[in-house]
Amino acid sequence: MQPSIENSTLRGQVVLITGGARRIGAEIARTLHSAGANIFIHYRSSAAAAIALADHFNQARPHSAAIHAAHLLTADAPEKLVAAALLEFGRLDVLINNASSFYATPVGQITHQQWDDLMGSNLKAPLFLAQAAAPSLRAQRGLIINMIDIHGLRPLKAHPVYSAAKSGLAMLTRALARELGPEIRVNGIAPGPVLWPEGDIDATLKREIVDKTALKRQGKAQDVARTALFLAKDAPYITGQIIAVDGGRSI
Questions:
Q1: Which residues pair with 243 in a beta bridge?
Q2: Stated pTM of the model
Q3: Strand, helix or coil for residue 197
Q4: Dist CA 234 CA 249 (whole Å)
Q5: Is residue 43 annotated as a catalytic residue, yes or no?
Q6: 3-state DSSP call for residue 68?
Q7: By the 8 A CB rule, do 134 and 79 touch?
Q8: Distance CA 232, CA 240 (A)
Q9: Fewest CB atoms within 10 Å of the CB: 5, 103, 203, 225?
Q10: Tens digits of per-residue pLDDT, 154-209?
Q11: 177 near 231, Cβ under 8 Å?
C-alpha cells in the first residue's frame, strides 16, 4: 500500500533527483511522489521517459512534477539546475544525487576521458550540486541522499575508476554531514544486486552474484526507493550514514 499523502511528512516538500527519469531514479521519484512530495526530475538524454513520468505525476496531482535537462559535468550546470528547481517550486527540501556513469576500465586501458567522466558523474557532480543546493536545503532543514554502491566499499574487478569514484562519494557523504550539519542531513544508499547494468550479463554470473548475498535473491528497485523514503520521512536523527541495500552481500 502506498503511503497516504495526508499522513506523510513529505506533503509539499520538493525533491530534486538527478537521473530521475529511468530505472532506480524513477522508482525513487514514484515512491516519494506517492508520499506527497513534489518532484523535480533531472535528465540528460532520456527526454521521453522524463516527460512521460512527469506527465503521470501531474495527472495524479497537478503541478507536482517538472523536468530539466542538463549535462552535470558542465561547469555551471549544478547552479542552473538548483535555480530551475527553485524557480519552479519556490523551495528545495531534498537533493538526491542519483545520476551515474558505469562501465569497465581495466588497468592498461584507462583513458583520461573515462577518468573525467566516471569521477565527474559519480563524485564531482554530487559535490557541486550539494554546494549549490546547500543554502536552500539549510533554510528547510533538508536532506541530501547520495546513491553510492557496495562497490564503493568493496572494489569491483575491472572497474577501478568507478569503484574509486563511489568510494570517494562515500567519504564525501560523511564529510558533508559534518560540514552541513546541524541544519542539513547527508546520507548515502549503497545498493547491491538490485537492477543489472544495461546490456547483456551472463546468466551464470548473475547467479554467482546473487549467491553471494545472505538472502540468496535479487533485490528490487522498490527496496532502494523505500530506503530513500525512510531517510526523507522517518530518520530525523540519522546523518553521515551509508545504508547498504544489498541482501547482505556486503557481509
A1: 189
A2: 0.95
A3: coil
A4: 25
A5: no
A6: strand
A7: no
A8: 14
A9: 203
A10: 898 999 999 999 999 999 999 999 999 999 999 999 999 998 887 667 788 788 88
A11: no
